[in-house]
From TrEMBL:
Its EC number is 6.5.1.1. PANTHER family: BIFUNCTIONAL NON-HOMOLOGOUS END JOINING PROTEIN LIGD. This is Non-homologous end-joining DNA ligase. The lineage of its organism: Bacteria, Bacillati, Actinomycetota, Actinomycetes, Kitasatosporales. Keywords: Ligase.
Amino acid sequence: MAPITEVEGRRLPLSNLEKVLYPATGFTKGEVLHYYATVAEVLLPHLRDRAVSFLRYPDGPDGQVFFTKNVPPGTPEWVTTAEVPRVEGPSRMVLVQDLPSLMWAANLVTEFHTHQWLVDTPEEADRIVFDLDPGAPASIVQCCEVALWLRERLAADGIEAYAKTSGSKGLHLLTAVRGASSEQVSEYAKELAVEAEKAMPRLALHRMTRSLRPGKVFVDWSQNAARKTTATPYTLRARSEPTVSAPVTWEEVEECGAPGRLDFHARDIAPRVQDYGDLLAPLLDRGRAGRLP
């Protein structure tokens, strides 16, 4: 029988704590739960009021990996849910609003993915995201070059950008915006991706065509579509090792000369939060959100 843990007055059965989820490092499910409890203070604000898609890997990244978008069977009644618009019709999804909900969701063994809009205002995007994805032999080093160009281009329009690793090969750029729909944000993001390709034709690419991608950085602007989700800041990823989608400073981006420089694991995040706080906290300040030109 799974041990029962009480989290802020909620009773949670936490199962298989000794199960190794990341064989390359021996990282267990118990360590996954400990990680999320440790970073909850900085993670929860980026989850709150956003419908969550779970990318589940209950047997580790080498086992079955699958998305769960609707409310999972057995979800406790005290976990907040909301009806959200979907192409195929309204759907009820989970909102991770507090520590008990976070620990319940973490016990499912999941990556957290969220939309670029809040559940109360799905018609308005509050984020722009650029997913910078390198095609070998390009790496995150080249992603950083593209990110710096995009940062300056966004600044020219009065929009402040922040960076985080994808937790895989690439880099994510995030900005806070207001007063625009997902369609308008997508159009704007595509315009900037096209400009990036024109400015850096040997480095940047705005098209997804696989044959064009070797040695270049795909500037994926399509993640801004209302139906799309992106890995939430601080989420663990279903990779061979417990890598994290970790916020980074612009100094780290500027100085990145080798892929390993921006490779962060679960063990690295608490010390970084202690040193830097939440580097993405400005995204949560509506007063600092930009407007599309």
